[in-house]
Amino acid sequence: RMTRMSVIPTLCLIVACGTPASAGDVSPTIATAGPFTIIVAEGQHEPSSIGSYSVRVYRGDPEAHGDFVAGTVAKRDGSVAKAWVSTLKDQEKVHHAIVWCQSAGSGSYGSLAVYEIQQKGRLRKLRLPKTQKLSGYMGHDRFFTEGNTLYREFPLYQPGDPNSRPSGGSARYMLDWKNKRWTLAAGSSDKSVSLKAGSPKAG
After folding, report:
1. Whole-angstrom Cα distance, residue 70 to residue 121?
2. What is the pLDDT of residue 185?
3. How far apart are CA 194 and CA 153, in angstroms?
């Protein structure tokens, strides 16, 4: 069963897949990118805590016998927390499929994959910048886009903080494609600035 989500011009949001007892029990997530339909799904008959996910591209609507164009299968650590299609890097005519996975356990560490949807529907996985771990980082990542910019946000922990109650504020980073790095963005709390400088590990 496939559930179609609403489409917003140039930014097609889809899905929160959750963490079912078994991967593949949730509906695949669907969005459009120009003439293409993009489907992201966890692997069938896999545990929710580890396994695979697929990104498939169809020309037109697959339910109306649209043609399969391209696809890829990738390893996941945890479940697919969210997947969506957006334009990035100030290229309004170029769409990207973004897949955010969340690890199992109390840390809920996030990892991200970005696939460029090329003119003929082929997928090209983009290499995200390698970054250093920030002091006070203990997981609970959240990824989102605003306009053409990709953000990563997470709470910061002080020594002795329990996992459920971070007291170091929060950090928000934006992906700087031109300089190939994560940079501190507006929206980080004042407390985060006083901690050790660096960028979050990008999973």
Report:
1. 7
2. 86
3. 17
